[in-house]
């Protein structure tokens, strides 16, 4: 019987999934390459071959998840309340997203992955364009409006320090409605 051919893309995908779980649970400093390799059922040398060092692997994980958010929850500057509601839904369904962002802020505040910075600049530019066309309030700078919207969307997700550990479906719906209404009031002209 001949050995199975190696599927590099499948191995990379397993490594990224395992790294996402590891970094979300333990942060950058606490993550262990050995645990990532074991969870992915891969040789740890492949992590270095495919991604470089642990910091580069974390950057790849963050860029992958930033891209995923951009694809699945595109910003709609003319409807920031709707955007905040969709982002809330995404974050509830993907709690690792906020954990990864929190570890990034805690451990590498001055060294963010390029994808994250580009995402924030793109969103602020879209808000600025909507403000220029009078489709959105100009009471705040684009950066402030983005920061407030993101903070409100994050406020009640299960990984937030303000949210109870368990929320019923009705409680989640009420929190989502509150987020949408708060952003609506924030953006009212």
UniProtKB/TrEMBL annotation:
UniProt KW Cell membrane keyword: no
Taxonomy, superkingdom: Bacteria
Keyword DNA-binding: yes
DNA-binding region: 32-51
Keyword annotations of the record: DNA-binding
Coiled coil: none
Domain HTH tetR-type: 9-69
Pfam families named in the record: TetR_C_21 (PF17926), TetR_N (PF00440)
Protein name: TetR family transcriptional regulator
Species of origin: Nonomuraea marmarensis
């Amino acid at each position: 019987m001949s050995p199975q051919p190696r599927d590099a893309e499948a191995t990379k995908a397993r490594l990224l999934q395992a790294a996402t779980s590891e970094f979300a649970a333990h942060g950058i400093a606490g993550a262990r390459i050995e645990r990532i390799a074991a969870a992915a059922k891969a040789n740890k040398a492949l992590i270095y071959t495919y991604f470089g060092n642990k910091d580069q692997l974390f950057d790849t994980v963050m860029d992958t998840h930033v891209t995923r958010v951009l694809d699945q929850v595109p910003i709609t500057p003319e409807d920031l309340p709707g955007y905040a509601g969709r982002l809330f839904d995404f974050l509830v369904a993907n709690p690792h997203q906020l954990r990864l962002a929190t570890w990034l802020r805690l451990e590498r505040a001055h060294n963010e992955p390029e994808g994250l910075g580009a995402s924030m600049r793109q969103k602020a530019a879209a808000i600025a364009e909507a403000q220029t066309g009078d489709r959105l309030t100009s009471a705040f700078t684009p950066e402030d409006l983005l920061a407030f919207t993101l903070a409100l969307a994050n406020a009640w997700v299960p990984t937030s320090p303000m949210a109870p550990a368990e929320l019923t479906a009705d409680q989640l719906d009420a929190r989502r409605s509150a987020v949408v209404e708060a952003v609506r009031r924030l953006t009212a002209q």
